[in-house]
Amino acid sequence: MMTRVFGWAVAAAALLLATPVVKAQSVSKGVAKTLAAAQTASKSRRWGECLSKLREAEGAGGLNSYDSFVINELRGYCALSSGDSNTAIRAYESNLGSQFAANKGARIKALMQLHYNNRNYPRAIEYGRQAQKAGSADADVNTLLAQSYYQQGDFKATRSFTAELISQAERRGQPPRQNYLQLNLNACIKLKDTACETAGFEKLVTYYPNPEGWASLMQSMLKGGPDVTLMNSFRLASEVGALSRGSDYTELAQLALERGLPGEAAAVMETAFARKIFTEQRDIDRNTRLLNSAKAKVAADKAGLAAADRAAAAGASAEDDLRVAQAYMSYGMNAQAVVAAERAVKKGNGKTPGEAQLVLGLAQYKAGNKPAAVKAFKSVKGDPGLERVAKLWALRAQ
After folding, report:
1. 373 located within any domain
2. CA separation for the pair 27, 33 (Å, rounded)
3. pTM exceeds 0.90 for this model
4. Are residues 255 and 202 in the same domain?
């Protein structure tokens, strides 16, 4: 998480140096020639000569406040450009309260960055808070302040500060910056705040969906729970490319078989073998048996699906319709799956509240009707686990 932006700090210092402060003011005659030589040396990138001339001018004595200001400006720039950030910091801090120092907001920002680059996080935080108090804290300052809290090990401050930045962006109807979300998530992980960590992953995939974010989020969900919730979590993980362990494929296939879905079990196993997920011979042998078991049941399942569909439609149980709908999906017959799932929703007597709406959403999604899928996913109510899975499926469908 450590971010160095040394080039930006040099550029900021150069900007400060180039800014005219008091045009009518001039340096004392006794040091004018020496300071001019220092300025010339700086323009030619002769940093050592620049600093030497400044020491010579300072040793001449009789300096007025403007002489000291110019000496510190040049010293800060030449020292920073030569890599001596400590000398640069002292010079710029000496000028911060000067009557000749214009653009104090930029100066505070530059000093904050310099202290951060020096890993002096308490001082970086001080300048960040000064910028906030002065109303000059921009996105760069806020990011650096959050990073300083984090690098200092104050994860609670990191969490609360970034949470507020995220909330502010959302209230404005804007996506929060990705670095705010990442810092917030990292702080939650450090604090072992599981709820916060999960919410952080969800926000990341909401605003910045990528395979890595989805994989991290899904791994946090594949740790047990009721079979119906776990199975639909595995399905989502498979959809977003987040199934990486052989045991995940095996468990999803076994869950499918237990629910009377050999077509889905066979498809899961075939995918695993195509991707060469299993490398140990004992795992290959075990999962080959699982694949063969699923395949052996597929022919009979497909042959009896139309009759099962008719029986489910004529019956009163939503569970039969749900089994048929998921079987149709496993064979790519998604239009028929939508019809069967709609029947289950209408009957409304499934064993797990919300499962019918979730299956309907899956069928609509696979059929290519994403708006209808999102609507169905958002209608899942009654079971907290399924509600969460459905929320993530809605994010995926969007």
Report:
1. yes
2. 10
3. no
4. no
